[in-house]
Design a protein that fits this description.
Blueprint (H helix, E strand, L loop, with lengths): L1 H17 L3 H6 L1 E6 L2 H10 L1 E8 L2 E8 L2 E7 L4 H14 L4 E10 L9 E9 L20 E3 L2 H16 L5 E8 L7 H10 L3 E5 L2 H11 L3 E9 L5 H11 L1 H16 L1
Helix pairs in contact: 3-9, 4-7, 5-9
Bound molecules: adenine (ADE).
Amino acid sequence: MEVKDSQAKLLRVLYYFWGLNPGEILTMKIGILAALPQEIDSIIGVLAKTHATEVGLRTYHFGSLHGVECVLVHSRIGKVAAASTATQLIDRFEVDRVLFTGVAGGVGHGVHRGDIVIGTELIQHDLDASPFFARHEVPLLGLKRFATDAKMNAGLLAAAREIAGGRGHSVHSGLIATGDQFFSSNESVSQLRSQIPDTLCVEMEGAAVAQICHEHAVPFSIIRTISDSADDGAVTDFSEFLHDVAGPYALGVVSGFLKSIR
Ligand code: ADE
């Protein structure tokens, strides 16, 4: 009786802070994806795994992490790969939250290598169906930008501050721009800055995941660690960062986030 009372109290506290009903907390299943093995293998390594399934050249790993049911998958690179993987997570494996983690090129003022960006909005910088639709507008959805989930972002922000702050880096929240292009020249990054001035960072998957989640009404978040500055030095910086830092960062942030919601 006493145990039941204290469990009920705890659920009420979670309900108060998260705005979720207790049943939702108990049944939450989060799909976590990343474009590269270096960005997700560290998390797969600590998953209390129940099983894994192969679908369409991807391995979906099932289990729990810090008491939260998760499906983890390496999505592969680019918008099509990410959209297809997000669709499988939602439609086939019935996740009710989606979290994308990975690295990105820093573009915004004051966004430096090692910083973390939490996307509040996602845009496809390479989408242009003009003159039929406005530049960057997703045809027939009438949207240029997709908003991420504020509650998930709050949990991520706390976790990111702990990881980045401990290493002398900053956490930023704002617009992430996605496209099928690796930025690696001063010229292309300055063009993007003039086209979409409030962009904090560039990557190749986030807005595709955002569109799929929007279409399925699934809350989602996108978190990125800055590996390079999308400029002439991007290729070297990206490769080094991926090798040395991406894994521990991803594991730290995702673990902190999951602990905050369990
Ligand atoms: N991901 C990490 N760095 C990137 C860059 N410079 N361009 C696109 N995606 C990236």
